[in-house]
Amino acid sequence: MPWIDVNGVSLRYEVSGRGQQDLVLLHEMGGCLESWDRVVPHLTQQFRVIRFDMRGAGMSEKKPTPLAMADLADDVSGLLTHLGVSGPVALAGCAVGAALALYVAARLPQRVSGVVAMAPATGLAPDKKPEVLALAARFENEGLRDRIVQRFPQSYPPHYFEDSAERLQVLGRLLSSDPRAYAAMYRMLCALDMQADLPRIGCPVLVLAGQHDTTRPPASVVKVAELIPNARFQVIDSGHVMPILTPVAVAQAILGFLSGPLPSGRATAHCPAQTAHQYRVRGG
Q1: 3 state DSSP class of 100
Q2: What torsion do the CA atoms of 205, 109, 31, 28 make, to the nearest 10 degrees?
């Protein structure tokens, strides 16, 4: 896999597939381009798939400086320029990656034809920020192991994996994350407010929630969809990190939404928290 130097940072990336449409995959916090390994084989007939390790993640450069969503958006744009991609691309992301996809769609609309956003992390409630900032400081002082091991059974339930070795591989990748970069990501989320960005998005958007996601449940995810003019909202049988837990369902959602003419319409505002089946909210 090659690296490029863009915006003063070295990024590892991969391009695969032979489709006519470009699709950029954006991983979750603590993830890397391998987060999409079980999704990509389902997409390469339809798309040319571009994925990369965000700055501070995976094998990309980890700079000891504050992080902003604008930096990550500039990296996406710089990577596309390096690859000679001048036309609009589709974006799909999970958690922080989903927020980045929506941010790019709002700030660089000429670059984006459509978005699939899974459990987007578009900001934090004010009462949660002190706890998150404290966690960031703890990561820098004590490392990530205690936090990751504590939350791993909840975030990556065993029944979603074909074997224990595959699940342990995910754990190993998480534990290899840089504590300072992880802390910078947490601080970025504390400073992030996308309330003004979401209504500016002009391209079609599919917002996905995981039915069993306890980190960002459907009732909170639908509130993001309600702010996006051309959004559909859908709940799938999954957890929080959907590309790792349910890759086939994620691939089906991406293909179903991005293949052919993209729909338009505003998402409506009803999503009962107790809903326990797949549903879609559409606008007219």
Answers
A1: helix
A2: -40
Burial 199-226 (b: 16+ CB within 10 A, else e): eebebbbbbbbbbbbeebbbeebbebbb
> CA-based diameter of the chain, in Å?
51
Q: Around Cβ 20, how many Cβ atoms within 10 Å?
A: 7
Phi, psi of 87 (to 5 degrees): -85, 175
Average pLDDT over residues 8-32: 96
Mean pLDDT, the chain, rounded, equals 91
Q: What is the DSSP letter of 35?
A: G
Is the pTM higher than 0.90? The answer reads yes
- Say how far apart CA 30 and CA 56 lie, in whole Å: 9
pLDDT at 206: 98
Is 3.90.1150.10 the CATH classification of the domain at 3-122+194-281? no
